[in-house]
Amino acid sequence: TFTVKAPVLSLALAPASAQIGESVQLTGGGFQPGETVRIHLDSSKNPALVSLTASSTGAISGTFAVPQTTGGPHRIHAIGRTSKLRTAQTLTVTPTLAPSATSGQAR
Q: 78 or 106, which is more confident?
């Protein structure tokens, strides 16, 4: 007899907290060698942030820019196009604070 083990998927984000427009580095593994792995924000129904190709060992590595979205926790999904394997990590989007102009006299 033999046992088939499911691949161990991994995904890491650096940094795990970023502002809109900042670059996030991602690394992962456990995908089918040579397959396209699409990276999505919150849902695979959203457009891919980036498409990566898994190495001969099933590893992925790349960067994406945080898109316009609400502040707070979001899920970054990595989905193998051939294997349909998926994994996810949380990215916290921090608000960008910008000073607002005011004019006139205080009353």
A: 78
